[in-house]
Input
Amino acid sequence: MQQLLGNDKLQKYRLFYTGDYQLTKDEEDYLARYEDIQDKLTDDDYTRSDVVKYVMKRYGVTKQMANRTVNEAADLYGSMVEIHRKAARSFQIEKLQRAASLCLNPGTDPETGADLPPDLSNYEKIMNQINKLQNLYEPDPEKTDDPAAYEVPPAFIYSAVEDVEYEEVDPESQDNSGQSSTKAISGGTSAK
Output
């Protein structure tokens, strides 16, 4: 049974809903708490902070514990905001698909009885809206290439380095005035 539960605290509640686990009395009480919190989260009259305050007052817990319990309830039942957003997107796509179908098959003219030509310009606009709702125009974040990989490196101009004369200071050959006698060196050999 421990393998079924794993390390996830909420797994036993998920298994209870599928009929694969029997809850203890304490676990049933805690599940009722999660259900109560989820009811408040789905009610449009309550914000998340209102639900946290409600949990603190109702169950006598600290703000940290109330936040944790609200997060666990949202994890157990899913984020209702995201579910509503996905449902609205799905309904909108269905409506647009019906409209696109009507653009391709507009039917017959009621006055003449002739078949109407398809409206391809509106069909294209509707299909673009459907594709945007389905995020078909968004590139996959894992598969986007780094544009820097395709940049052409700047051209380098190579030229021969000329030997430059410089002076080598010999600390032993300094006189009392602070002046040093120097040797001129060119091309790695000393001139004496």
